[in-house]
Amino acid sequence: MANGELPQGWGVAPIGSLCTRTETLNPARQPRATFEYIDVSAISNESWSIIGSTTYLGSQAPSRARKLVRAGDVIFATVRPTLKRVAVVPADRDGQVASTAFCVLRGVSEKLDHRFLYYSLLTEDFTARMENLQRGASYPAVSDGDVMEQEIPLPPLPEQCAIAGVLSKLQGAVEAQDKIISTLKELKAATLAKLFREGLRGEPLKETGIGEIPESWEVVTVGDLVKLGSGATRPSEMAPSQTKEKPFPVYGGNGVMGFSNKFMTTEDSLVIGRVGAYSGVVHIAPSQSWITDNALYNRASLNSRTNLKFLSAILSYKRLSELQRQGAQPLVTQGVVHAVKIPLPSLEEQEDIARIITGLSDGIATASAALQTRQHLLSSMLHLLMSGEVRLESA
User: Fold this and answer.
1) How far apart are the C-alpha atoms of 222 and 176, rounded to whole Å?
2) pLDDT over 90 (residue 226)
C-alpha cells in the first residue's frame, strides 16, 4: 500500500484474501480436441483487453497453456508487469485457456467487484509495486504469489460497484473514440485508392504499367519530380526566435523525434525515413524545421508540375516501407525512392485531391485529439476514484 490515509469506511486487504482458487488443465490430454489459447501477446496494453486468441489441437498445445479462465476473471501478465497487460475475461471467452504467464484472479463476489479489482491493477501505485518486485534483467517477471500478496484499498462493495461503473463508462468512451479513428482511417484509405485510380474528373481509364489511371494522367518516377538528399546545410546562425536553450524540433520519418540544432529546412520539405523502424514513412516537415541525418528529404524546390501534399500522400499510399533493403537495419535508399513510379494528374487536379486528403487527415487529427482528452480523463479519474480522493454515492 502507498502511504496515506484511507477514506472513512474503506479498508485494505491482500488480493489473495479476496479471490478464490482457479483451475488448471493440460489440453494435451485431449489431443484431438480444439481449444482457444490466450497468450501474453493477445492482451492490448492500450485498451487493457483481450484482442485475440489462437486455436490449437490438444496435441499441439503450447507448454504454457495450462490456466482455465472463466467469464469475469481478471488476468494479469506477470512477465514484464509494468506494461499493464491486464484484462477482464468477457463472456464469449469463458472456458478458454490462458498462459501460465498470467496470474488469474477470480474474486469472491460477496467481497469484491471484479471490475474494481481490474482497475486496482491498472493504478500507478500497483504498477510501481510490481516494478519494485520484478526479477530478471532480460525477462523481468513477478510471481503469482507477488500479485496475491499485494494489498489494495477496499471500499464497501456498493461503492466498489459505483466506482467500477464510472470507470467502465469512461473506458467505453475511449474505446468508442478509438473505433471512430479506425473508421476514419479506413475511409481515408478507401478514398485514396479511389482518387489515385479514378481521379476527380470522371475520365475514362487507361491501362498502364502501374494499373488503370485516368486518360489525361501521366506515369512518372519520383526522381522526375524531386531530388532527395540526406542532411542539409547547417545554417550560419540560429533563427531570431530560437536559442540554444530553445532549439528547433527535429523531424525524422516518424515526425518530431526530439530537439536539436543540427540541420534546418528553408521551406516545407518532404521527409522520408531512411533507416530503422520508420524507414519509408513519409510526411511533410514545415519550413524552419531541423532534420535528422537519418532521413531523406527534399532539399530543393519541387518540380513546378508537382503539389507537395499530393506527392506526400501518394508516396504514403505507395507504402515505401515495403521497398526496404534488409540488413542490420531496414533501409530505404534515395535511388529506390527516385525509381518509384506514380500517376501524375494536372497540377490543378493534384491540388484538388490534396485538399480532400488534407480534410480527411484533419478529421483524423481532430478525432485523435479527442481520444487523448478522453484517455487523460480516464487516467485522472482512475487515480482520483481508486485512491478515494473523489467519493461516489453508492446505490
Assistant:
1) 39
2) no
